[in-house]
Amino acid sequence: MDTIPSRHEADLDFHHLQVFDVLMMERSITKAARVLNVTQPALSKTLARLRLYFGDPLFIRVSMRMEPTPKAIELADPVKSVLDRFRQLRSAHAAFDPATSERSFNLYLVDAGVVHMLPPLLNHLSCHAPRVHIEAIQCDAQHLDRWLESGVIDIAIGSFPSLATGIRRLPLWTEHYACVTRGGHPRIGPTPTREAFIEETHVLVTAAGTGHEHLSVERLLEAHVPRQNIVCRVPTFTSAALISRNSDAIATIPRTLALGMSRDMDLQVVEPPLDFPKIEIAQYWHDRVHRDPGNQWIRNVVKEMFGQARV
């Protein structure tokens, strides 16, 4: 298999190969740039370098996607193998000292996790790991297992029961649901009847296509609330709560977020008269980083701070 170019251009580095790997996953320069936290012009420049090095276009625009050429498909497994070996070598020989480390950890959380977990986590890091950086990554949760495998995400936190094999998990806490309305809502109090609840307007957080267990809550609301009373659908819990704060619509969100936002905003916490399922929140990571000292450390921090929390 001829995958090594015969010309004598300067060697590629880890970043070049990572760009290639992410492009193979995302098939989009825009999405790959967002994943890698670089500008689109910078990523296009790296792609141009890859094309020159391998003497092949590698990715061809077809409709709205960048489809790999036969050469790119041929390169995919060798590149992934090189990246995996490099990461293993780095983690096997690099000690991790949180007090001096400048490592950046990429975490995938839904917005409720960002609001609930990041403030106390950042306060902890400021005392014990002042140079460690945390980045909350937005991604297509349908491809979360591939992002964990590739190392784009270090750990994911939430409820993703359909993740592929090779992903490890550690339960953290059991999440319950509550509803919020604006303070002084003219008809809904803290404990409404089922009839009063379903007759009100609702803003729903949609989890369709994300693989998140919140989808079961969304489906239960759809089964009980008349369609005409679902006035809005939004992709995040915080946006639903903000809409409720400024309208008469009811938002159903995780209880941890409801309690936190009610303290900071003029929101009423409402006990839902429907039997919403409980959701098990866990942290997820790939087998490949299971023994990585830095990944072990951040997982232990999350476990110690949030494990077995009951809300």
UniProtKB/TrEMBL annotation:
Residues 12-69 form the HTH lysR-type domain. It comes from the Bacteria. InterPro entries: LysR-type_TF (IPR050389), LysR_HTH_N (IPR000847), LysR_subst-bd (IPR005119), WH-like_DNA-bd_sf (IPR036388), WH_DNA-bd_sf (IPR036390). Keywords: DNA-binding, Transcription, Transcription regulation. The keyword Nucleus does not apply. Belongs to the LysR transcriptional regulatory family. This is Transcriptional regulator. It comes from Paraburkholderia terrae.
